[in-house]
Design brief:
The structure is a single chain. This protein is about 15% helix and about 20% strand. It is an alpha+beta fold. Helix 1 crosses helix 2. It is globular. The chain starts with 6 loop residues before the first strand and ends with a strand.
Length: about 400
């Protein structure tokens, strides 16, 4: 069963271990403790599923939709206002488990202009409990409609022996739902060729689900008119893990425990930092270029959003004219013919440890562009020049 006052659709995620299809919901303030679940007994080779919840009367469900581990698809009706600080309360967790939830939840804030502040239960946007049986979350702003004495998110199997990879996998996934992300396999562009008889048989045995439940929670695809999608990303933290036997073409999805590169850039586009100066769809790359013994550095500007690898930039401005710039600690500015101005001031170790640093004309942290440090990837070639990405931002 879903948490109280909830209708199952694309906005609730429940991972059905070890309850075999039944999830208990505890009111905030009732006695519960995450430590009652023996995580060490979990067989992580099993496929786990996550049910998405939607607040009744607040969401129009188009068909039956669902969400899960992976985050390159998002319900555009449920986004929080950009720059929101969400108040989060946790009830029923041990001090250790609570510290881990806090540690991994904020990974989204490295890339999205969304902040989480943890407060006592009673006046929060996201209310977390630790009721054994399943992990799930309401999608995005649907959490606003959940009474303070009821959970909007639950973690069902954490204890003080849970490994960091499992904390990260589940916490980052569920908080992805909380900021609007749906399951990656429900993306309209996923096109997974499911081996339905095998999947039906698995979930009937493991979760007690009938075919209608599997249809709504595994096979259903979200309406394109209410989603924002990137190309299907099997490495997304929002993607279900499933074995090759579940598909007709032998494709599978791994256990993803980290935000993928697409997750990071996608959520950065949806929740950009304040003062982001760009057109609706554009990107800027700081590149180092080589042509035999000649070298140069410059700014490549793309007026469209998408995979730009191998594509000629809309415009390019040479910055160094005969040398390679050390982008870190070398502030500068260029103006393109269409009026776009790019200012950069990259701090030392920008983009290290998987985090974004800042680029732009503003001085304060949240008034700058974010920039991602690349691995010197070949971006494009032209007239004998090969240009490699050092930093980029959308």
């Amino acid at each position: 069963m879903a948490p109280p006052s909830a209708t199952i659709d694309e906005t609730v995620i429940r991972e059905d271990y070890p309850s075999k299809g039944s999830t208990t919901t505890t009111k905030v303030g009732a006695a519960t403790n995450c430590k009652t679940v023996d995580t060490l007994a979990v067989d992580f080779s099993e496929v786990r599923t996550c049910t998405q919840l939607s607040s009744p009367g607040k969401t129009t469900v188009v068909g039956t939709q669902f969400s899960g581990p992976g985050s390159a698809a998002l319900d555009n009706r449920k986004l929080w206002p950009n720059g929101t600080t969400l108040m989060v309360s946790i009830f029923g967790a041990s001090p250790f488990v609570e510290s881990k939830i806090k540690q991994f939840a904020v990974e989204w804030s490295n890339f999205a202009n969304i902040q989480f502040v943890f407060v006592a239960p009673g006046n929060s946007d996201i209310h977390i409990t630790c009721t054994p049986g399943g992990s799930w979350s309401y999608i995005g702003t649907d959490a606003r409609h959940i009474p303070q004495d009821q959970p909007s998110m639950n973690f069902g199997w954490f204890n003080d022996q849970t490994a960091d990879d499992e904390f990260r996998r589940v916490v980052v996934h569920e908080f992805g739902h909380a900021i609007g992300c749906i399951h990656e396999q429900s993306s309209p562009v996923s096109n997974i060729p499911w081996n339905k008889p095998v999947v039906y048989a698995y979930y009937l045995k493991s979760n007690g689900w009938d075919q209608a439940m599997v249809d709504s929670q595994v096979f259903a695809v979200a309406d394109p008119s209410v989603t924002v999608d990137t190309p299907f990303d099997r490495t997304s933290i929002m993607e279900y893990s499933y074995p090759a036997s579940f598909t007709l073409d032998g494709s599978s999805a791994p256990w993803n425990t980290d935000l993928s590169d697409i997750d990071k850039t996608f959520i950065m586009q949806l929740y950009p930092n304040f003062g982001l100066r760009r057109t609706t769809n554009d990107g800027v790359y700081l590149v180092n270029c080589f042509k035999g013994s000649e070298i140069s550095s410059g700014v490549a500007y793309y007026s469209f959003l998408g995979s730009n690898d191998g594509q000629q930039p809309t415009a390019y401005i040479d910055v160094t004219k005969g040398s390679n710039v050390i982008w870190e600690g070398s502030p500068g500015s260029v103006s393109f013919p269409d009026g776009n101005t790019v200012n950069w001031a990259i701090v030392a170790n920008a983009g290290s440890l998987g985090t974004y640093s800042h680029v732009g004309s503003a001085r304060n942290k949240f008034e700058s562009w974010n920039v991602y440090k690349d691995k010197y990837r070949l971006l494009y070639q032209v007239d004998g020049w090969s240009c490699y990405t050092v930093y980029w931002c959308f």
